Amino acid sequence: MKELRFHSELFSQRSIAIDALGTEGFEWFADYSTVDIDHELCGLEIGGIRDKATAKQIRRVLRAAFPAWRHSRVYEKDWGDRDLGWWVMIHRDPERLY
C-alpha cells in the first residue's frame, strides 16, 4: 500500500500560481479552467487550457514562480467529460513508475 502524502503548503502555493498567471495576463475560466493540487508529487496541475501554445506559456510562468520545482510537463487530456484540453503539471518531486 502506498503511503498517503499531504503537503499543506500547496494550498498557499496554489494561490501564488493563480496570482502569477493573472500578473502575466492569464484569466481563470478564460485561459484555463482548473488549478488542482497534487499531493503525491508535491505540485500543481493547471487544466482546461485551449491550445498547446498557451499551455507552454503557462508552464513558463509557473516555472518562474516555482524555480525549485524542477519537474514539469504539458499534455493533452482528450478523455472524460470535464476539463478537456491541455494541461500543465509542475511539481517538486520526480514522478515514480510503479
The Rg value, from CA coordinates, equals 13 Å
- Which strand order do you get reading across the main beta sheet? 1-2-4-3
Q: Strand content of the residues, in percent?
A: 25-35%
CATH class annotation: Alpha Beta
Structural class: alpha+beta
- How are helices and strands ordered from N to C? HEEHEE
CATH topology name: Alpha-Beta Plaits
Q: Note the overall shape.
A: globular
Examine the secondary-structure arrangement and name the CATH architecture. 2-Layer Sandwich
By DSSP, the count of extended strands is 4
Helix percent band: 25-40%
On the 0 to 100 scale, the average pLDDT is 92
The biggest sheet amounts to: 4 strands, antiparallel
Distance between the termini: 12 Å
H/I helix tally: 2
How many domain regions? 1
